[in-house]
Amino acid sequence: MQAKETVFADLVQGRAQQFQVPLYQRTYSWTEKQLRQLWSDILEQAELIERGEKASTHFLGSVVLAPSPQNEATFPRWLVVDGQQRLTTLSLALAAIRDHIKDAEPDEAERIGEEYLVNKRKSGNDHFRLLPTQADRRQFAAHVRGPLAEQPADGSVAAAYSFFRRKLVETVGPTGPRDAFRIEQAITSRLTLVAVTAERGDNVHRIFESLNNTGLKLSQADLLRNYLFMRLSTHGERVYETYWLPMQDSLSNEELEQLMWLQQVLDGDDRVRRQDLYAAQQQRFERGEASEPEIEAYIRELHRRAALFRRLLHPEEEPDVSVRAHLQRLDAWQAQVTYPALMLLLDRRERGEVDSSDTARAMSYVESFLVRRMICRVPTNNLNRVFQAMPGQLPLDVPVADGLRQLLSAENRFWPTDGELREKIRTAPFYQFGRWHQRKMVLQRLEESYGHPEPVDFAAAQLTIEHVMPQSPGDEWLRMLAEDTTDGENAEDLHSRLQHTLGNLTLTAVNSELSNHPFERKQDLLQGSHLEMNQRIAATERWGTEEILARADELADRAIALWPAPLRGVGRAERSRDWQLAHQVLAALPHGTWTSYGDLAAFLGSGAQAVGNHLANTPGLVNAYRVLTSEGKVSDGFRWTPENEGGDVRTRLIADGVRFTVNGAADPARRLTSDELALLVAEDDDRADGEEAEQRTSAGQGEETRADRFFRQLATDDSPATVDAVRAIFARWEELGGWIGYGAGHVTTSAFLMLGEAGAPGRGIWPLTLYPGGGRGGTAEVVFQYLAAREPFTDRAPRAELLSRLNGLEGVDIPEGKLTLRPNFRLSVLGKDHNSELLTETLSWFRDRWEERNS
Predict the structure, then answer these.
(1) Among 150, 204, 670, 676, whose CB has the most other CB atoms within 10 angstroms?
(2) pTM above the 0.85 mark?
């Protein structure tokens, strides 16, 4: 290989020649961000030319070339192994200059075309000095041939050409060819390239691989596409046009990679990881010394399965109504983990081995497996393995749907039985497990099971999950609960145990004024709902323990009918109460924190006495001594097990960072509630009932905006001084370059202090979520748990500094043990001027840390 420094003019000028972008290369993908940077570099060089400075140049990057198999002595052809994005962009820029000066300087426009863009005496594809990959070829050729009467409306090539035409008008005006010539000179002679040229016989594919190892960061799909078409030396063009290009047009690069992985799994390799896809497939082809027909057959099969895969991504394309309904629900569940099983079913159906009825039945087992496990709080950490192994494990001696059910019912699959499902619906805090859209889908399916004569359009309705008995109960709610208490359980403990269970949850789009009012005032509101479940709740005289459990039993009957149970007698291990979740959360208790028997019981969906008995009789439990009474005292019945002998409990607690008050109780500020325990083992970020923050401040006449709703709810419980302080903080945040996102909740809304691209969920970051009080005063939630997965706050140090800065506010005292959770403080503290100033300084510091990481 040879390497030398060059410029665009020296690379492409001279005799007729062509630079070919191989089929395996990505399509042209530069966006306006890269184009703006290049344009800035070009203008800088043009200004230096105008001032007569000759020494300065700008290094643009490298171009790696290799002799094309179609090379001829009289017409050199080169494969562009690396650098096609740069060469395509510079060619489009020169085409734009040519067209800009065409009317004023037609001879010069023709010169630019002949020197840099076309081979004048060649025809067909040979006419172009740069020949892009087939997906880009039509648009590129249209722009290189000359100004179009009708320009292609979309595509990256058209966008780049339009960018340069627009910038030329802005920079040099409608005429000004002299300025345009300086820009041409800057592009062709002041942007330097390193041209690396391979010799004939060099392994171009190995060059391609080495580029990936040095930072090109090609995907597994890119590498495998390169490998396949390098092996198709005689039929590559036909295979590419017939199979690959249509598939590439219908799937994104990431989706194509996922399809390649699924094909590997369906073909029997149940252990391949997506990040190892290329190496595994390469070994498979080279081990069998695959011929061109075999590689073509692989691509043809990939093309066939691409149409099936699109039905998983776009269920509306599935023709069968019943199968489509299952695919839509699994898509709403975001059940990508089940794709191997779903692809297997669609593949077998297309081969004629199963009909649509049995395909839908098999999918109902997959849906039930996921839903029952979520309701029963079974961890999801083994689901990838379960479904990836399915194609290779499916029994051959039974129908496909029955074999799939048998597999899911087998030992260690943990598909909950009817009894387990009924128990968890009664006792488990449904609202604290799974993802928000999964919880919403469960309630939606339960509502649909009533067969209401006027079913709700769930796609159009803005429904959220709401607690009938509120999360922040007023005195009337607590007095009613006090009537239901037994065995020493107080009203607060009873509320904690029942509030998040499925029997107390519903879907509604009601306004927030009644969110925490007594049940009698909620009844009228629920009675007017179009949802059958809400009308049934409204018909109940009171809403206490008996009513919540009765509704739980009714919903359990419907859930059992909706989601089939596993088969019995398939070697499935019987499970006792799921104490593993208790062990997991106890081991995750942060330094300096404690919890109570009632909190742990509420988190588990158990009882405080059962929790105490389990802790007392289970040897080897981590942190069992950090479970105290609700008053922060060591239980009178606490005893060390022989295996856990640990001396004085208080001494151990102090050594673990737990602080004690003057009356000898553990500091209540360091107590973790059931909600905070749930955060310790949460599998995803589940904020504001899952609603994404959106910047919505405008509305039609008479329509309440999200911002208006937030401040109306805030003013309900907080003083005017607090509301004004929050408005001032929002204004200062926007001055710092942030924006305010508002949740879509109606009963309880929220506001997010966002950084990043406005209106683009998932691309930014936020330090605080603000909630109206719902009867108890608004709070600011510090999202340490969320930040711990986002740079630069994955390191503990910046999160600890954020905590320290917030604790500088008077009235804020967040324990260090909550550095991985979501602690909160009252918004009322912002009414003090110095607190608002300190918070503004903290927010400015937060912005600076994030911008440093992303600069």
Answers:
(1) 670
(2) no
